[in-house]
């Protein structure tokens, strides 16, 4: 059993990021598309999405809860991720580990992850085991046994996870403080895994309150992709999840918003464990949920043109042409409930210094603000987005991820399906305008990771 | 009628800061002291403190509520201060303005202020008017008429207050973002006046919820100083405040705490309205409420020796001796519920640059960390604290402020009375240890206020 904490920002693997944001064109664009996505709701409010794919006799079963770390009460950071761990404990009907054992027995695999905006559980198994997966998953939605004897040891596990992932990793510690400096009011300023001193205090009362509030069918989305038909999924869903009573109605996810930023901020971490310096620079920008029409799509393409992989301007200019950087790029976290971040980054190579790399990144940003992008490179970026969906199509779990993350952040099935057309519609001027509006060098938040001997970046 | 927002940090006038933190020795140290402070509680839980002072026929009447901006719900910044304004509106028994008119008629004065941790209302009047003040003040504790017609126009007043005090003041805007960068989890990161976009959304529902929760005798402290005896205050208090029903019990004021800081952070504001550059550098440190025994006293004396006025090291070295700074100093905000800030600051003079001033400040900090302070300068700092209470004694409102702010942040009458002895007990080693423990140059948060033409500090 692998438990996962998916920190959507920065640690999101590039490939998955691409898949999550760029895979959707598959549905609308590919001649003879193989998917016809069905969506419906159960009587208790649980949303269901079915993505049939009969190329192989496997099925991916996911349940997404519309709750993540950004929904945690003040002072209780880490409870969403902690709860993800607790979902692998015993229920009134099954001992701890029984579900995982069953998955292993039939040669399947399972995982779970927590982000700012959602928590998801999934198994990939043979179609004949789907009903069993649903039965177990429905069971733990409401029947967990949350005693102090369960909570205490698992809290120690989480504390150890934080030690190994964050405390032992200067870059991770720096990122936490950069996030908290970038977001001064939104809950994205708080790490998904939680702050050590707050995790230490999490207890049974917190866990029970969280479970009772958020783990209910009307706050969940079932996504099934693979070798199964919608009618069969519906039948099984009604038989399993459909038996669970609707939970209390949850208010809209209205969270504190960022105030206007008037300053340029830096966060500097000097640590003996760092051998090569690096920097990142971030801005608060709209997400797909908060943007005006077309703006999030423009930011997505801007990140692709500026720093999305080896064809991007930053990589070509800094790594290939000037040879001053070992890495340079940009990314945009679009699939979020609230305003999100746009980030550029780089690390020097050879004789080059960090400042030189940062200056070169700034030059590329200013060049886009001043001159925009060419129709040709925009077209190529759009095509790269379209091509990247090939990866998604080849993996039913990727398709399930796209629908699950979109729906869990407030989007719809139609949003996913119309996304390729919205990407196609972006003009070079929109890219230039987005860069000029959001990537203001005097309003940025930069993080510097420096070796101990360095006195100055 | 002057409505006040007392931003405890930075904008606190130096004189009042001195009075608030240093006046207490009066009570224990001065031979033939004129005050004998009484304290008791009413049956409904309202605390009462009486500080008789018969030198002049005036009396200061204050009511302190144990609620400030740090108690606001997420997303509702500014409601505590907004509510302070609403307290000057009409009640079921008196029209808006009637209370103020009465104060003016009898030649008194009144004011109110809101901080992170408390909100206070006070009037200074002749003793014969005390009962009238209590009657009015008790009335508005529970009988305010909170309609949309009252709320809407007052919200416009607050928005205008924010525009004139903050938006038109680059230094104030910078301080807000420095605070939000220094405090990444504690509510002190949020400005007392509130963020513009959140003030705009405050409404009748928010105001009513806030009033019903926090404005009750069991969350209030009555402080009366001046030409009156405790028995008379008790009699009047029972007749007025004593008639108000106890409100719902409030949970302890347990707020999110800061995570460990691992970085050095900067916040830079460049603005055409700035003519002379300046900087501040701050650290999160314990307050009198959160410190281990003696630590807050050591921080208080450290701030005094390092940068408390013209006799301090920073002033003597940078302004007088080197002549590179027009100002330089330090301050510590000790009277707070949670961990607070210790700040140093400076501005260059003549040919000197900002970096030169910052470096010189850092030299003085490192000198104390390395060599500590002398017994002689510590003794003098203690004596300055003692002497400064002369100002407090001369002003009954200052005495009322000391008791009110101490009690409203979780301290006791005994804390105020024992404070001089605790200050006396601080050793040079404790000062050195406090500097070494808290003023780490690699973990600071610096703010830079720069003229528009400057490219580099």
Describe this structure in words.
The structure is a homodimer of 457-residue chains. In chain A, the strands form 2 sheets. In chain A, strands 1-5-6-4-7-3-2 form a 7-stranded mixed beta sheet, with helices on both faces. Chain A has a 5-stranded mixed beta sheet with strand order 8-12-9-11-10. Chain A contains 17 helices and 12 strands. Mean pLDDT of chain A is 91; it is low at 5-34. The first copy, chain A, is an alpha+beta fold and 457 residues long. Chain A folds into 2 domains: 34-243, Cytochrome Bc1 Complex, Chain A, domain 1, CATH 3.30.830.10; 265-451, 2-Layer Sandwich (Cytochrome Bc1 Complex, Chain A, domain 1), CATH 3.30.830. In chain A, 43% of the residues lie in helices and 17% in strands. In chain A, strand 10 (325-332) and strand 11 (340-348) form a beta hairpin. Chains A and B meet through helix 7, helix 8 and strand 8 of A and helix 7, helix 8 and strand 8 of B.
């Amino acid at each position: 059993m692998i438990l996962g904490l998916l920190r959507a920002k920065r640690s999101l693997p590039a490939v998955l990021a691409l898949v999550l944001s760029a895979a959707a064109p598959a549905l609308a664009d590919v001649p003879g598309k193989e998917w016809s996505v069905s969506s419906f709701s159960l009587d208790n409010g649980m949303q269901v999405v079915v993505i049939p794919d009969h190329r192989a006799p496997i099925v991916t079963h996911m349940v997404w809860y519309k709750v993540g770390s950004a929904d945690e009460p003040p002072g209780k950071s880490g409870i969403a991720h902690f709860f993800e761990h607790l979902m692998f404990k015993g229920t009134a009907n099954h001992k701890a580990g029984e579900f995982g054992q069953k998955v292993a027995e039939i040669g399947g695999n399972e995982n779970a992850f927590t982000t700012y905006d959602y928590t998801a559980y999934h198994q990939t198994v043979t179609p004949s085991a789907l009903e069993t997966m649903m039965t177990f998953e429905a069971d733990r939605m409401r029947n967990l046994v949350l005693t102090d004897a369960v909570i205490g040891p698992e809290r120690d596990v989480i504390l150890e996870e934080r030690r190994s992932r964050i405390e032992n990793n200067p870059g991770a510690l720096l990122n936490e403080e950069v996030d908290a400096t970038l977001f001064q009011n939104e809950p994205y300023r708080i790490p998904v895994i939680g702050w050590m001193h707050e995790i230490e205090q999490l207890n049974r009362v917190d866990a029970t309150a969280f479970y009772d509030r958020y783990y209910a069918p009307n706050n969940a989305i079932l996504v099934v992709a693979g070798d199964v038909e919608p009618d069969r999924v519906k039948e099984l869903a009604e038989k399993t999840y459909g038996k669970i009573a609707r939970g209390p109605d949850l208010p809209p996810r209205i969270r504190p918003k960022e105030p206007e930023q008037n300053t340029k901020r830096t966060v500097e971490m000097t640590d003996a464990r760092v051998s090569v310096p690096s920097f990142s620079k971030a801005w608060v920008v709209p997400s797909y949920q908060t943007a005006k029409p077309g703006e999030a799509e423009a930011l997505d393409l801007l990140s692709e043109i500026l720093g999305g992989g080896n064809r991007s301007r930053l990589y070509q200019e800094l790594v290939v042409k000037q040879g001053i950087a070992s890495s340079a790029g940009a990314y945009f976290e679009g699939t979020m409930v609230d305003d999100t971040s746009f980030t550029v980054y780089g690390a020097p190579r050879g004789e080059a210094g960090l400042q030189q790399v940062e200056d070169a990144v700034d030059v590329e940003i200013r060049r886009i603000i001043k001159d925009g992008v060419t129709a040709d490179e925009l077209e190529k970026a759009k095509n790269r987005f379209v091509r990247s969906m090939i990866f998604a199509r080849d993996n039913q779990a990727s398709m399930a991820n796209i629908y699950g993350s979109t729906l869990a952040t407030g989007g719809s099935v139609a949003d996913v399906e119309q996304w390729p057309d919205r990407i196609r519609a972006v003009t070079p001027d929109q890219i230039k305008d987005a860069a000029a509006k959001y990537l203001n060098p005097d309003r940025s938040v930069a993080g510097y990771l420096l070796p101990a001997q360095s006195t100055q970046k």
